[in-house]
Amino acid sequence: MSASLLRVVGMTLSIGQVTTDSTDPGPLARWWADVTGGQVVAEHDGWFYIVQGPGGAFAFQKVDAVTPGKNKVHVDFATTDDLDAVADELVAAGASLVAKRGDDAFRWITLTDPQGNEFCVASEHLTED
């Protein structure tokens, strides 16, 4: 089964986009477009933005107040580049480092975007069958 499809009880669902709440979604959408190599493809009266990138779509919607506490959902990105160098570039672009995690077998780095939303970047590993 494709990683982007889920079949439950005769119904097929696919991931349309990952949406993040924000009190100021425009700058956040542009930041994510910049760091993913995507572009803002839709903007709806300043309250809803869609970013289309190489890995799929992200949306950013305006809310009066974000839900306090740790993200309940976050995005994991994979890279074939040097993991530490990628994290350094993201920090230079405005992200904040939360923690470097894992061990020699699998490492990932948790960061936050400029508005405090957590996301992770991990080394993409090829698996052998």
* Overall domain count: 2
**Number of continuous helical runs:** 2
Give the CA-based shape. globular
Mean of the pLDDT scores?
86
CATH homologous superfamily annotation of the largest domain: 2,3-Dihydroxybiphenyl 1,2-Dioxygenase, domain 1
Judged by helices, strands and strand pairing, the structural class is alpha+beta
- Low-confidence segments: none
Helix content: 10-25%
CATH architecture of the largest domain: Roll
Q: In percent, how much strand structure appears in the residues?
A: 35-45%
Query: How many β-strands, per DSSP?
Result: 10
Description:
It is built from two helices and ten strands, in the order E-E-E-H-E-E-E-E-H-E-E-E. The two termini are 16 Å apart. The longest helix is centred in the first third of the chain and has 12 residues, at 25-36. It has 129 residues and is α+β, with helices and mostly antiparallel strands.
Question: Which helices and strands, and how do they pair?
Answer:
Elements: E1 5-8, E2 11-14, E3 18-22, H1 25-36, E4 39-44, E5 48-53, E6 56-62, E7 75-79, H2 83-92, E8 96-102, E9 107-112, E10 118-123
Parallel strand pairs: 3-6, 7-10
Antiparallel strand pairs: 1-2, 4-5, 5-6, 8-9, 9-10
Task: Give structural attributes.
single chain, 129 residues, alpha+beta, 2,3-Dihydroxybiphenyl 1,2-Dioxygenase, domain 1, 2 domains, four-stranded mixed sheet, 43% strand, globular, dioxygenase activity, dioxygenase
